[in-house]
Amino acid sequence: MQHSPQNLVLSVFAFVLGAAVGSFLNVCIYRWPVDLSISRPRRSFCPQCKQPIPWHHNLPLLSWLALRGRCANCSAKIPFRYFAVELVTALLFLAIWERFPWQVAIAYWIFVSLLIIGTFIDFEHFIIPDRVTIGGTIAGIGCSIVVPALMQTNSRLAAGVRAALAAALGYVILWIVLEAGKIAFGRKRIEFETPTPFTWAKRDDDDAHFTVGTEESLWSEYFAREKDRLLLKCDQVRIDDREYGSLTLAFHYDRVNADGNVLMLDDLTHISGVTRELVIPREAMGRGDLKFLAAIGAFLGWRAVLFSLFAGSLLGSVIGLVTLVAGKPVWSAKLPFGPYLAFGALSWMFFGETVLHWYGMLLSP
Fold first, then answer.
1. 192 and 52: one domain?
2. Could you give the CA distance from residue 124 to residue 338 in angstroms, rounded to a whole number?
3. pTM for the model
4. Which residues of 96-108 are buried (b: 16+ CB within 10 A; e: fewer)?
5. Is residue 38 very low, low, confident or very high in pLDDT (cuts 50, 70, 90)?
6. The domain boundary residue, chosen from 236, 262, 281
7. Per-residue pLDDT tens for 118-143?
8. Count of domains for the chain
9. Phi/psi of residue 110, each to 5°?
């Protein structure tokens, strides 16, 4: 396929713009999960030495390569993720520009930017911020009204209604999966081969460190609902300065029942002992995934909701099985689902119609 000079210039512009946007996405990925403003400070800074990065050391793609992935001021290592985000964003911007009409392409640029932010934050923090999910849903409905072609119609009103209904469909489908999963698999029992030490230690914030054996996690990670309960069958327990023998500790997020005594965790600083069995509450997925699929529906429509859910579940299952077989079993391990939904959404954008046609040929050759 030959490109005219004008098309070549526009393609290069799309790539460069994507790299620049990717640099901004890195700011969002780093700052949003820790509640930092993306506008203050205005300039990027090194996470280690906190020194502002001058513009000539902050050129998308080029600076990371030129500095060999290190800060020019303190030589601290800059994660490869910064380069990867810029490169992926640049390539997606270019691919979208080459594949879709310019009005649709601009809307999809907004969409993939949200997908990238949500994906990398979910990988690192196991959350997807409302700025991405709720903001993405609102942006998707707005873009569909401005560019009705996103919903395969010429009517702005019809496009807005379709986008809103697709967003609702995405949310409701995953809500049903979430609730059904809670009923069927809402508790996980772990039996230890030998008596295993555990500790619960309060942090400075409204949370605590929970360590069982060699596995450490945050207390808040186990309690998605007010009624969730965590059980520890113990041989011996020490709660601050009180000693207990063999008993079962029944924890809620804010309290613990120990031998019939209900103790508020806000009044405690340290719990330790030896356990033989642990029962933890669990969810099929996080609620951020529900809103993430709603945002996908708002941009891509109801068929993309179903496709993204199927493709994401398939990929997530494969990776989960590979991880289970290849790695050491870890009972506290978590698998973020947002990145797999994003994979399904991108697959639909570029190959959805082709896959549906292929599948239809399989059903009726």
1. no
2. 11
3. 0.89
4. bbeebeeebbbbb
5. confident
6. 281
7. 999 999 999 999 999 999 999 999 99
8. 3
9. -60, -45
